[in-house]
Amino acid sequence: xxxxxxxxxxxxxxxxxxxxxxxxxxxxxxxxxxxxxxxxxxxxxxxxxxxxxxxxxxxxxxxxxxxxxxxxxxxxxxxxxxxxxxxxxxxxxxxxxxxxxxxxxxxxxxxxxxxxxxxxxxxxxxxxxxxxxxxxxxxxxxxxxxxxxxxxxxxxxxxxxxxxxxxxxxxxxxxxxxxxxxxxxxxxxxxxxxxxxxxxxxxxxxxxxxxxxxxxxxxxxxxxxxxxxxxxxxxxxxxxxxxxxxxxxxxxxxxxxxxxxxxxxxxxxxxxxxxxxxxxxxxxxxxxxxxxxxxxxxxxxxxxxxxxxxxxxxxxxxxxxxxxxxxxxxxxxxxxxxxxxxxxxxxxxxxxxxxxxxxxxxxxxxxxxxxxxxxxxxxxxxxxxxxxxxxxxxxxxxxxxxxxxxxxxxxxxxxxxxxxxxxxxxxxxxxxxxxxxxxxxxxxxxxxxxxxxxxxxxxxxxxxxxxxxxxxxxxxxxxxxxxxxxxxxxxxxxxxxxxxxxxxxxxxxxxxxxxxxxxxxxxxxxxxxxxxxxxxxxxxxxxxxxxxxxxxxxxxxxxxxxxxxxxxxxxxxxxxxxxxxxxxxxxxxxxxxxxxxxxxxxxxxxxxxxxxxxxxxxxxxxxxxxxxxxxxxxxxxxxxxxxxxxxxxxxxxxxxxxxxxxxxxxxxxxx
Length: 671
Known about the structure:
globular, 5 domains, alpha+beta, single chain, Elongation Factor Tu (Ef-tu), domain 3, 671 residues, disordered N terminus, Rossmann fold
């Protein structure tokens, strides 16, 4: 039903645009070694973007322009190329294929109009393919499938197409032999008609010319109701030019360049001089050099001038005077806008779902200045916020969050190359978190001589995965609006940690109930002290809970190995659904702690002789299966933490004195 009005106009939209070029952003996705970068090289060659086709194994791929990528033969950074085909500018983003760099991939997804998912005709659907597919579905990005390596021994594109239907989506349609200059084959028209009542009526009546059905296919693809699939060999340049033409014909989106400017940040980089480059997708309007852009940084609305506009394609960077809706570009002049930040008329901020489950300590020699090392990692943190760099003042250590060992190896090389010094990393440990199971009220009072602030906070268990959320129930006659805003700002100015292991605090609803200040004695920082003490005092009274990360897992093995896998899941403190059985295989889905299952892929490959498949995706946090053991092993002393204290400070006879948390409530001024 929804296609009708769109069909009436889509056939004429490009002619109405006259000389204006369409601008479409397409992402490239695949499991490692499926041939994604090789396909991108061929597309760039056939659009005359590059003169010679590079290869990953030759270390000269256009989009793997970083020395680290060329040395390791994998895509690490989501780099982009600009290619022109007929009247369309395609921005091609080549995303990492290794799970350790999934956050980089997710940040790029949010600015894509379409995606190309490359699957090997030999290996078929692999673990990371499913992760990619789930991510693209969550964000409703239309997908083109390219079944690659059809020239290889053992290639079976028809079998892979069936795998796509059974494991990813039943709405896949093959364009091989179904899409020609003369129109769409009847089998493809029938597949389209199954998904729309008006198309069904047209199909049964034999109505509609070639343009009618082509327009209908565009609308179904754009609406994620049908996913076209082609096959070929990128290495042998088979099927690539036909695929490029199909992309041109079927990928269709328009942006409003006459509207006020809006955009979204999807990447931060720094040039060789350390200048911050903010990469943006323009969603509407136009932007010129010296224009002012507004965006939110915390609770503050910032306005900053664009000092340079840059067109970026591979390692080529070219200044431009203006960009329009649909463009990908970089700017200088924005100091704090991070990945996911909306700009201009787009005021929201995107939150990302793929988060690291491991933490590691940065190790460096005594000859290095700790401030220099910390500064380098904070620059890396701006580029990859999932690192969540933390400086532990008490022990003088830098800790980061990571996805896996490969990421740490790349970070070692990156630090050496960019900053000129050598670091290593401690063995990755599970990133635990803490929350509470009971509602409590926390009280904080800070009143050394000539200072004054009191804060009352209600702490309640939040939804799993919600993080730290805030509400304000305090009335202005109790506490000024300015001081209420201070409480809110201080709660979010840094990550908080729990009492059991010192792990990050999460999934707690914090409500400001009331508070007090003094016109003469309240100074900067007083409400920070009172707020942190109130939070900590509440935790002391609550039932604290340790959380651990878990995987959603899917294991596919031959029937002979099913019992072994079920036993392994039980041994790993996991749980599983009844196995799905075919004549030869079993598919087992379940949830299992990361701590007990993170190395299982090697074990599975060993006892199945490489014939078993494992797909792991981050499934959030759950109650830790061995809480007491972890608490004992980590050995956190809550009373020795200098950054947090639950003790309140009161004043008597001209001097301040400390009151422990269990006695503080009785002395509060507002009770």
